[in-house]
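Appendix B, record 7
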Amino acid sequence: METVACNLCGSQQHTPVYEMPDRLFFPDEFFTVVECDHCGLGFVNPRPTIAEVQKYYPPEYYRTPPTSSHDRYVTRRFTQEASYLQELESRNGRKKLLDVGCANGDFPRFMAARGWEVEGVEISESSQRITDFLVHTQEFQDIPVNEPTYDAVTAWAVLEHVHNPMAYFQKASTVVKKGGLFVFLVTNFHSAASRYLFREDIPRHLYFFTRETVRQYLDKTGFTLEKEDNGRNVYKLAPNNWLSFFLRSRLRGKKFTYNDVPLTSKEFRRLHQLPNGIAAALQYAAYSPASVLDRMLWPAIEAAQVLTKNYGISTYAARKL
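Structure tokens (predicted):
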């Protein structure tokens, strides 16, 4: 583990926001999320080193369910992601894309089918081996490209995972052609889901951004922000536990901590060795009626968050100056 200064402004002064464990793989390991007192950037501190963090990305992290409904969801997601690049597609000539954090390579393949020349960056040893296009296996800032080469660089849910986001913004500025785009998706630290409801994927998520801190990164690295989409059009970060948070913190005036978070229905069934079915659903409703009502209220709460630009996910499109 290592203790770090703020990646955006360099300050050593920060305030703890919350503690939570790795809910996916190591539930006994807790981590602290802090907020920089000077610029507002959120980050895990202390955090796993680069050498240690691979432990938190086992092979099952990259596995996807082999279902037709999942395939339809992925196709819709890729279509939405591609929409941010349509303006470049409309220009004459073949376009070149670098997808940072390309995982198993599915989005670059989707874009190749639309006529793009594609490359990827993927450092995880647990992702599938890719042979049909060039993949750089170094950290993005270390790839052997040091001049404007790409019409677009994309990073879908990547920047929150890396140890040095500033180096990624700087490298994007180096390799994107003038007038090209840097498009990236991150969680929204202003949202209840990120800041209060323990919905971040700790410790795989190491950094937590707001539109203000994103603007500061872009201003420092030669980009201008052209578009922000705050909502569910690519990924979702549902306000799970919103009702429990509201009842405890807003009505009772008490701090909502990770210990106040009820088990999910999946965790409840696993703990009590229950199969899926009505009996298990009724037992879960008896255990946490607030969770059941919480789920029923999601559509209204999410719609209000999108309307007020406080949803848990934001996508940004920035132009290279």
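Remarks on this record: The chain has a mean pLDDT of 93. The two ends are 38 Å apart (CA to CA).
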